[in-house]
Write a structure and sequence with these properties.
The protein is mostly helical. The protein has helices at residues 2-20, 26-36, 41-65, 72-110, 113-119, 124-163, 167-177, 180-206, 212-242.
Length: 243
C-alpha cells in the first residue's frame, strides 16, 4: 500500500508538470469532466437523498419527543455538508467513474496502446492522467454541492411527512446552523476527492500487466484502494479543520 501511494504521488506530480507545460487539450479535459462529474450526478444525488431521508426518518421523532424538532434542519445540514454528502458522493463517483478510468487505462496498457504513445515521444502519464485529474478536480466539488442541496431537501421532505415539521421551520434552522467554513471545507473536500479518485484509479490501471483478466482484477483493486484513500483523506481533513 505504501509503495502504491508513492507511485500515485509520483504520477500526480508528473501530471501536474504536464499541465503547467500547457500540453493538456481543452477538449480532453471537457470530455473527462463530463464522464467523471456530469454522468455521476444521478447516482450521487440518489445515494445522498436516500441517506438523508433515512437519517431524517430516524432522528425526527427523537427530536420531537425532546422538544427540539425545530433543530432537525440544522442537524441535517451540518451532518450533510460536513461529512455525509462529500463522503457518499465521492464514493459514488469512485464506484462509477473511477473504476471506468481504471478499466480504460488498463485496457490501453495491455493492448500496447501506451507503448504506441511512447513511440510518438508523448508522456503517457501526463497524456492520460492530466485531463482526468483536472476534469475531476473541477466537477466533483460541483456534484458534492448539488448532493448537499438534494440531501437537505430530502431531509425536509421526510421530516414534514413523519412529524409534520413545516418546511419554513426546517429551512430556518438550516440557515442558522450553516457556517461559511463548512461550505468552504466541503468544496475543498470535493477538490481533494476528485484528485484522489482519478490519481488512484488511473495509477492502478496504468500498473496493469498481462491480459484481459488482469483488467478486471485491476479495476477491483482500484475501487478498493480509492475507497481506503478517500476515507483516510476525509479523516485527515476532519482532524485539520474540526479537531
Amino acid at each position: 500500500m505504501i509503495k502504491f501511494l508513492g507511485q500515485c504521488v509520483l504520477n500526480f506530480i508528473t501530471a501536474v508538470k504536464y499541465m503547467f507545460d500547457g500540453r493538456v487539450r481543452f477538449r480532453s479535459v471537457l470530455s473527462s469532466a463530463a464522464s467523471i462529474g456530469y454522468d455521476s450526478i444521478p447516482i450521487a444525488l440518489a445515494i445522498v437523498f436516500i441517506a438523508s431521508a433515512v437519517i431524517s426518518l430516524q432522528i425526527s421523532k427523537q427530536f420531537l419527543l425532546s422538544g427540539g424538532d425545530s433543530y432537525v434542519g440544522g442537524f441535517m445540514a451540518v451532518a450533510l455538508i460536513r461529512e455525509l454528502a462529500p463522503g457518499f458522493a465521492a464514493l459514488a463517483i469512485s464506484a462509477r467513474a473511477g473504476t471506468a478510468v481504471s478499466a480504460e487505462i488498463a485496457n490501453m496498457k495491455v493492448t500496447s496502446q501506451v507503448d504506441a504513445i511512447k513511440t510518438m515521444k508523448v508522456d503517457p502519464i501526463g497524456y492520460y492522467f492530466a485531463p482526468r485529474i483536472l476534469g475531476a478536480a473541477i466537477t466533483v466539488p460541483c456534484v458534492i454541492i448539488l448532493a448537499e442541496l438534494c440531501g437537505i431537501l430530502g431531509g425536509m421532505l421526510v421530516s414534514n411527512l413523519t412529524i409534520g415539521l413545516h418546511p419554513a421551520r426546517y429551512m430556518n434552522s438550516v440557515w442558522l446552523w450553516i457556517q461559511v467554513k463548512d461550505l468552504m471545507v466541503s468544496v475543498f473536500k470535493g477538490f481533494l476527492f476528485g484528485i484522489i479518485i482519478t490519481t488512484v484509479c488511473a495509477t492502478q490501471g496504468y500498473s496493469t500487466e498481462g491480459g484481459a483478466k488482469n483488467v478486471g482484477i485491476s479495476t477491483t483493486k482500484a475501487a478498493i484502494n480509492a475507497t481506503v484513500f478517500l476515507l483516510t483523506a476525509d479523516l485527515i481533513v476532519a482532524l485539520l479543520f474540526y479537531f
